[in-house]
Design a protein that fits this description.
There is one protein chain. With 85 residues, the protein is mainly α. It is 62% helix and 0% strand. It contains 3 helices and no strands.
Amino acid sequence: MPSVRVRENEYFDAALRRFKRACEKAGVLTELRRREFYEKPTQERKRKKAAAVKRHLKRLSRENMRGAGGGAPSSAPPAGSSRPY
């Protein structure tokens, strides 16, 4: 559980904001929501597999965007272009 020490002459709102940020970084609420109901092992495997596929596709998409953005010019002319220049 994250803890926050209230500094001298610090407003309560600022300390509460720091505590909320610490909880968010630690993932307390997401863990709470995950444990709220029982999840069958097959459902857990299915959820984790879907998350892995999503991460993989996201990584591939980022690599494709990086490669298409500033890479070397391709040897094939752009589609729909009949002029040599």
